[in-house]
Amino acid sequence: MTQPLTVAITGGNGNLGRKLIAAFAPQDWCGAVLAIDRQFEGDLGSAKAQPVRADLTDRDDRAWQDAIGSADAVVHLAAQNPYPDASWTDSTRSFDMTINVVAAASASGRPCRMVFATSNHVMGRYKDRPEATISASLRPDTQPGVGTQWDSDGKLLDATPYATAKLMGERLCVMQAEHGAMTAVALRIGWCQPGANHPGTISASGTPKEGRAALDEAGQRDLTWFRNMWLSNRDFTGLVQAAILADASAWPAPGIVVNAMSSNTGAPWDLEPTERLLGYRPVDDVWQVLG
Question: If we measure between CA atoms, which residue out of 184, 171, 174, 165 comes closest to residue 119?
C-alpha cells in the first residue's frame, strides 16, 4: 500500500478507537482517519480524523460503506455490546456488523488490510485448565476454548456468546483473505482499560475496579489470569499499527491470527508469532508495573 494511508476505524468514538486516533493521526504514514460510530461526544482531536455517523447493522447505510470502500486499511472494533458478558442477542448483532464490514472491505476493488479486534475470550476456558499455568502455552493455533467464566460479586458470568461472535469473526476474516479479497490480521486483544489503563485496577471479578481484600484460591487464579492478559496503551496502539503496516508476503497465509497482550512475565499467551509476523514486540510487563 502506498503511504500515506486512509484508515477506517469502526467504533471510532469508543475507548480503543479514540486511543488509535490519538496515536495514528500525528504520524506521517497516516493520511486520514475515518472514524465510524453511531454517535460522537466532542471532536476527535485531529484535523485528520473525520467522524462518520452510521449504523453498521444497516446494510443500506451508504455512509459506512463508502468510508470502508475508500480506506486502505480497516480496523474493526465496533460491537453491539463491547463487554464480555454480552448476551446472545447482542453478540449476534455484533457478528452481523463483522459480516457487513468484511463484505464491504472485500468488495472495495482495491488492496485492503483488515485488522479485526477479536478477543482473549476465545481462549477463556483455559483459565481453569492446567495448561494456563504454563508460560507461552497458548498459541494462535491452539484449539479454542471459547468463553471465560468468572465470579463477579457472587454471580457467575460467562463470555461464551461474546467469544463465539469473536471466533466466528476471526474465521470469516481468514476465509475472505484466502479468497484474495484482502489481507487480514485478527488480533486476540487482551485487557486494555479506558484512560490510563493501569493494571492495578484489574480485579478478580473481571472488571476494572478494586478487588476484594481477601481472595480464595479460585479468586487468586482469576486475578492472575486477568492480569496476565493486560495490554498497555503503548502496546495496543503499537500492535494495531504493526498489523496495518506489516508485509503480508512474509506471512504463511493472507489471513493470520495472533495474540495481542503485553509482554507479561510468565503469561500463558505466546507472543512469538506476533513478533515474527507483525514485526512488533510488546514492551510493557504487568508484573513490572505492579512491582
Answer: 165
What is the chain's alpha carbon radius of gyration, rounded to the nearest angstrom? 18
User: According to the model, what pLDDT value does residue 25 have?
Assistant: 96
Q: Rounded CA gap, 72 and 6, in Å? A: 5
Helices (H), the chain: 15-24, 62-69, 88-106, 160-178, 217-228, 233-245, 272-278, 286-290
Distance (Å, rounded) from C-alpha 205 to C-alpha 32?
39
Q: What does pTM read for this prediction? A: 0.95
Reported confidence tier of residue 8, pLDDT bands at 50, 70, 90: very high
H-helix or E-strand spanning residue 232: none
What is the crossing angle of helices 15-24 and 233-245, to 10°? Answer: 70
- At 184, which helix (H) or strand (E)? strand 183-189
**What's the distance, CA 15 to chain centroid?**
12
H/E segment holding residue 11: none
d(CA 155, CA 232): 28
Domains observed in the chain: 5-149+159-196+231-283 (3.40.50.720)
The residue with cell 460479586 is 153
Quick: pLDDT tens for 139-181: 999 999 999 998 877 788 899 999 999 999 999 999 999 998 8
Angstrom distance (rounded) from CA 269 to CA 259: 7
